[in-house]
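Hi team,

Filling in the usual template for the complex we talked about on Friday. All components are listed, including any nucleic acid strands or ligand strings, so the model treats them as one assembly.

SUBMITTER: L.P.
PURPOSE: interface mapping
COMPONENTS: two
RESIDUES: 706
SEQUENCES:
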Amino acid sequence: MAFYQRKFIYKNLKRKITTIILCVAIFPLIFLGETIYYRFAKTYEEKIEDQIKYRTRSLSDAVEVFLRERTAILATIVDTRSFDDLKQQENLARMFKVISRRTDGLIDLGVIDSAGQHLAYSGPYNLKGLKYFQQAWFNEVMTKGKYISNVYMGYRQLPHFVIAVRGYSNGRGWILRATVDSDIFNQLVRTAQTGMSGDAYIINKNGIYQTAPRFSGKILGKSNIPLTLFGQGTTVAEKIKANGKAKHVAGTWLKNNEWLLVITQDVGDEKGGLLTTRNTEIIIIVFGCLAIIMTTFFAMRMIFNHLEEVDKGISELNDQLIQSDKMAALGKMATGIAHEINNPLAIIGEKAGWMRDLLDEEKFQESENFKEYEQSVDKIEEHVERARKITHNMLGFARRMEHRLDDVDINNVLNQTLELLQSHAQTSNIKISKDFQSELPIIASDQSQLQQVFLNLINNAIDAVEKDGLIEVKTRKKDSQIVVAIKDNGPGIDEEHLKKVFDPFFTTKETGKGTGLGLSVSYNIIKKLGGIIKAESKLSEGAVFSIKLPIKIPDKK
Amino acid sequence: MDMFRILVVDDEVDFLETIVNRLKKRKLFATGVTSGEEALTLLKEQLFDVIILDIKMPGGMDGIEALREIKKIQPLVEVILLTGHASVETSIEGMKLGAFDYCLKPIKFEDLLQKMAAAFGKKSTHDKKIRDAKIQELIRYPSKVFDQD
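RESULT (copied from the run log):
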């Protein structure tokens, strides 16, 4: 499959995997967030309801205690003091003084006889002598024994309410009556007016405000709270306000179901914490989703880039292997051809030699065309020699057989190699300069393998220079080593590539041009021969490949 | 110096004839045969100093095989292997079997002559040593020598 086709497949695959990962990761996250929020909100609302219910119950208890305490004080006085005693103005005043010292909230105290006549009064108003016989509360006290009135204006034209207790004297009823300070009572109720929108007030069973509400309405005004919302005990209802905002309304009946204590609070005001939690959760989910998306995209890109890289590498490796196979086949074919050519070449050479032998005979020398014959034979021999060099160089290893296996003259090997590459270099106008140290010691080594290494290095140098350049080949004896340096003035090798030049299959040449094996093979050969091969280069300054070979004197010379 | 006797074994008739002619032209005693079998037959009848032996000879025994047999018949003869199909294996095998040298075709005739001369030199030295040893033995133990005869 071609590389670009795989790239297309990878692109599709990448898209599919990304989509699946995102779906699998993001949807559960959102679902989880929503579920947690829903559960949390429900619990939070229950808490709010409990809280408002608790506040209402506490306040109703406080109001009840307030009223009961004051009723109990009056009842105790009635039960322990006589009518005759209390109807004396100074006695009543003393009693009121004592009461005022022990408790607050009462404005005045009065004694009313069975005919409704205000016999004694202690307080800021002058109510003595007023007659209450006609008033509804008077009859109710006389009938029921004790009475707490609704708030009303009365003679004093100020909102107030009274607590009255009936006593008996000589078989006739009388009443001890006290007025409750509306301010103190209001203050008590206002303690439940919390937050920005919290309100607390008392209305009677006709919906008339008994205490002043915080926002709309005033004392003794008509409330629009539907009383039917509230049953026995403490009831909490959610009521929609006119401006579209919802509010919680909690109510509980007081004073034998005559008064209703109402506490209200805006839902938004109470749900502030919940909204903050919701916003935090949304931010966390959004950031979580962003993190998942980014991680997925980055991870996918990394994985697929790596995959494409590997794929490209494999593809190149395949190409290189194919190329290596081709080269090997070509090499085999070339060797075969060289072998086959050697035999006819030997015959031509010998025939020419035979002709020269015959030409040496006296009678031929007298021939008119002797010179022509001789020149022709020279040419034949010259070109046989040329062809011989080519086939023998092609065979490389075979050449070794002509010499002793362990007898290597490095300068000679380099000369042979350069002879092979000379025409290749000349066509690209590359000059090869030789700087050989004369009388290098003959060393014990592997000539054909060394020739292969030199061939690789010089060939690479030619490829690097491309054209119009210079390659310097230098040999030196240094201590117990022979140093061969091949220097070119090509573009050089960058640091990153320099580290890899001896790696197998590493090549900077175009695909199909280099197998990436030449330097790797050279490295292994030199290592096997006990030497060192090193590459040095700076960009745009060319490269130097140097080989150090140990001087080993051959056993037999 | 003794007569220099050379045997050339090569299946390429053109090459064989030319080489033999050129050697003869130089007043050398040269004989040519085209197969290993023929060479062996000839070697049983006649002594040679140097043999130029081709390795690849299709149809019959190859040069390496022939070399092995030659050394059995005439152990002192020097053999120069000359082939167009060089290989590391045959060269090592050849040298192990006692070949004097291993050359790749085409070879300059002068180089070949030099190699033959070197081979002949080696054989002559060898022959001389044997002859000297025989003379010494004859001097020391004349009866033994006579007994052998």
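MY TAKE: The first helix of chain B runs from residue 13 to 25. Strands of chain B lie at 5-9, 29-33, 50-53, 78-83, 101-104.

Thanks, L.
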